[in-house]
Amino acid sequence: LISASSCFVFLPISFFMECLLSLLLFLNLCSTVDKFEVIVPLVPVVADEGSDIVLPCKLSPQTSVIGMHVRWFRQKFSEYVYLYKDKMETVGSGYEGRASLFSTELEKGNVSLLLKEVKISDEGPYKCHVSRLESFAEPQLQLTVKRQGSVPLIEVEKLEKDSLKLRCSSQGWYPEPQMVWMDKKG
């Protein structure tokens, strides 16, 4: 009668070392296969109100995002502007008909967001979240929206003696411009 506790198989140490080395190489390969960087501009993207603008975002190295999750959002992760997941595309509330990715560029790692008919309320930070398995990156970029106002109107009013009163008016600018009066001395 042989009990289970008395049955041992002795294997050489080199076998265990080979198994351990193979496991470590496999784990290292798995961890590097998933690594990518998501690149967005460091300077603000500037758009005129009413224009169409591209918020650039791409993967490095150039990697297909088919099978990945891409989420463009502003403040809250759950309130997305645009979502690409499992080859399905969903546009967030308030962005219907205005937000899209470039479908033909997804295989090249380009997940830039096209935002049409930009509004003043679109101004602010945007995050481009890209994830696959356990890896993700979520850089932030800034969208600045501007609106050109009316042509400045300068009115001149003559006061007593040798003095004049100048008034400059213009409306509709965003952001509101600063104005400085200067004389010939600067």
Walk me through this protein's architecture.
- The protein is built from one helix and 14 strands.
- Helix content is 11%, strand content 35%.
- It is mainly beta.
- The chain is elongated and about 115 Å long.
- Strand 10 and strand 11 form a beta hairpin.
- It has a domain at 37-146: Immunoglobulin-like (Sandwich), CATH 2.60.40.
- Strands 2, 5, 6, 7, 10, 11 and 12 form a seven-stranded mixed beta sheet that branches.
Label the structural class.
mainly beta
CATH superfamily annotation of the domain at 37-146: Immunoglobulins
Helix content: 10-25%
Rg on CA atoms, Å: 30 Å
| N to C succession of SSEs | HEEEEEEEEEEEEEE
What would you call the shape? elongated
* Overall mean confidence score, pLDDT: 85
Please report which band the strand proportion falls in: under 5%, 5-15%, 15-25%, 25-35%, 35-45% or over 45%.
Answer: 25-35%
Q: How many extended strands?
A: 14
